[in-house]
Amino acid sequence: MLELILFYIFAGIAVVSAILVITQKNIVHSAVFLASTLLSVAGLFLTLHAEFLAGVQVIVYVGGILVLFVFVIMLISLERSAVERQFNRQWTIALIAAAALIAEFAYAIFKGRDSFVLPDQGEPATDAIVGNTQAVGTALFTKFLLPFEIASILLLVAIVGAVILAKRKTQVD
Amino acid sequence: MVSTYHYLFLGAALFTIGVIGVLTRRNIMVILMSIELIMNAVNINLIAFSAHHHHVTGQIFSIFVITVAAAEAAVGLGIVIAMFKNKETMNINEIDIMKW
Questions:
Q1: CA pair distance B27, A66, nearest whole angstrom
Q2: Can you tell me the distance from the alpha carbon of B54 to that of A116, in angstroms, rounded to the nearest whole number?
Q3: Is A109 in Cβ contact with B24 (below 8 Å)?
Q4: In this structure, what DSSP letter does residue B99 have?
Q5: Is residue B94 part of a domain?
Q6: Residue B96: inside a domain, yes or no?
Q7: Residue of B59, B62, B65, B96 to mutate for A, most A C-beta atoms under 10 A
Q8: Cβ–Cβ gap B12/A109 under 8 Å
Q9: Which label site among A2, A38, A148, A150 has the fewest CB atoms less than 10 Å from its CB?
Q10: Could you tell me if residue B25 is inside a domain?
Q11: Is residue B72 situated within a structural domain?
């Protein structure tokens, strides 16, 4: 019962803040509501017993990516974007696309409802003994070592690319 | 009792909100934030299935999604800054130098 209450609290905060992210006129407000969404998603990860991922979500998303967003918002001027129109003229196309997407999701979830009935496997023995972080770490450094290294190369390339993009001489110079 | 269904519906809702944000907003920062929302929806689904199957692989995939999101944010914001230095705008309707 407590699980259900926690789920509805976190899910409600996440969905309402997500709607506010895309409807706010001021992008600083959008960033604040994005933080609220990300933190409640971290809470949902806790209810799913993914404690390590909840920590990663808070540290990387809220502490890293979102701070980067706020930095860039502060670097560029807000005055002009605050007065101009925030939505483009694609409302009808966007609504049609969203309706098609919702229909597709509803069909897939409705069609697959029987495939979610798994035989009860009980609580996993490994998780109970060693905990979530150790299970994730063991899998990451044994079975998924090569993808892990490729991810580190991706991050290196992204760092180099971001520095080059931000440093490049522009027409203004 | 919370089932995997609840999380799938939440993921679908967040994904749809993100798609609507990408399609309707003109401010490039909000579009990047909507992309983060979409990636969060995917993460919710991955971790819900990880808990559903009592298997840790979904969480590993989720870590990779977060890695890609961080790389995407770094490069995307670098592009935003470079573009703002050139055109002094964040409105995607005015950014059309590559339009033929």
A1: 16
A2: 13
A3: no
A4: -
A5: no
A6: no
A7: B59
A8: yes
A9: A2
A10: yes
A11: yes
Q: Which of A72, A127, A133 to mutate to test the interface with B (most CBs of B within 10 A)?
A: A72
Query: Whose CA is closest to B92, among B38, B22, B20, B39?
Result: B22
Find the domain containing B64 and state its range: 4-87
Domains contained in chain B, number: 1
Bridge partners (DSSP) listed for residue A108 = none
The pLDDT tens digits for A96-143 are 988 999 899 888 888 877 776 665 555 554 445 567 888 889 889 999
Query: Can you list the alpha helix ranges (DSSP code H) found in chain A?
Result: 2-23, 27-47, 51-56, 66-75, 79-83, 91-111, 125-130, 132-141, 145-167
Place of tokens 């964040």: B90
Q: What is the pTM of this model?
A: 0.87
CATH at residue B56: 1.10.287.3510
Alpha-carbon distances of A132 from A49, A112, A142, rounded to whole Å: 7, 28, 16
Residue written as tokens 């490049």?
Answer: A168
